[in-house]
Amino acid sequence: MSTAPTNGIAGLAAVAVDCSDPPALAAFWQRLLGGLAEDDAHGDTMLTGGLVDVIFMRVLEPKTGKNRLHLDLRAADADAAVAFAIEAGATKADDVYKGPRWQVMRDPEGNEFCILPPRS
């Protein structure tokens, strides 16, 4: 059982992702998470109504190094989910972790995420 914090925080609004091409990256993640992607007047793209809301924010600097924060996606069928992610444009990130517990992936801009097997 979880309880609401008493610090004034009401909840998680969205996960923010810095990227060079918000509409393109949102389209990739929309295939994995579902939802509706909408561009705003600032050149950012908001993905809402899927598994989690994500805002893709345009930045000029390229990604360097491993993400300090990433999404873990629970799969009903891990092999099928990995294959689908690859077909959508992801690549395996075996240089980050290669083992039996989960599959580390990279989205089209190099942001890491994990596909976890079903809960046992």
Automatic annotation (TrEMBL):
It comes from the Bacteria. SUPFAM superfamilies: Glyoxalase/Bleomycin resistance protein/Dihydroxybiphenyl dioxygenase. InterPro entries: Glyas_Bleomycin-R_OHBP_Dase, Glyoxalase_6, VOC_core. Signal peptide: none annotated. Residues 11-118 form the VOC domain. Pfam families: Glyoxalase_6 (PF18029). This is VOC family protein. The lineage of its organism: Bacteria, Bacillati, Actinomycetota, Actinomycetes, Pseudonocardiales.
